Structure formats: structure tokens, C-alpha cells
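Reopening this ticket.

The earlier resolution said the output was attached, but the attachment link was broken on my side. Pasting everything inline this time so it's all in one place.
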Amino acid sequence: MSILDAFLKLFVRQPQIRMPRRWPRIVVTDATVLSLGNGPRQPIKLANLSAGGARIVSSFTLEPRERVTLTVPLGPGNRKELPAEVVYCTRDARGLHYTGGVRFSGAGSEGIADIVAFIEEERRRRSGPGEMWQG
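Inline output:
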């Protein structure tokens, strides 16, 4: 390696390699609630959902590592309340809402298998019958 290459390596950003996601996820736009510890239930909106966690949009800020309970809608009449931990929370570009990420606590907890089944069913439903006309 030449001195110039070593010098450039110090000051030129290397592209970051994104690792594949651990769990399949789907985009959702469901209104639901988030319970803050032993406190009140707050209305939020889900932005996406996976078996590992969810991205949410709220009118209030959350602290990283804060423990919450997320009510996850899994179709008509089917809701699961799952313990979660806040991973991040930032104000959106316009400053009107907060976008946050929550990670479900304990991958073996009840409800995770239901989320996996719901996501797979939704992905199949959204992709349609899968048969394309070939003329």
C-alpha cells in the first residue's frame, strides 16, 4: 500500500455494507397503542412490523432503552401485547412527529410466532395469486 493510499484511507469514507435483515418485515399503517411502563396507554401508528420489533410514529418522544408494551394488531379482532425496548427515537424532518424503533423483548415470548405467521400471510396476500399471464 502506498503512502497516498494510506492517507486517502484516513480521510475518505468507505461505503458501509448493510447486513441483511434478520426478519422479514412488512409496511403497515395501523393505529395502535403503546403502554409506557406502568403508565398510561398512548396512541401511536405502526410504520413497519417484523418478528424482532417495529418502527413506530408518535406525537411524543421515547428514551432509548425505555421498557414499553406494544399492542400489535394481527388482523380483525386479533391483538397481541408484547413487551419491547426502545432502540431509538428521532424527530421527523418536519418536526411534527417522532419516529422510533422498538425491539421485542425475549424472542421466545408468546406472540412472536403469531407475528411471523401474520407477516407471511400478509406477504402472500399482497403479492396476489402469483400467476402472471404469459401471452
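Reporter confirms the inline version is readable. The mean pLDDT is 82. The beta strands are 25-27, 31-36, 41-50, 53-58, 67-73, 79-91, 98-104.
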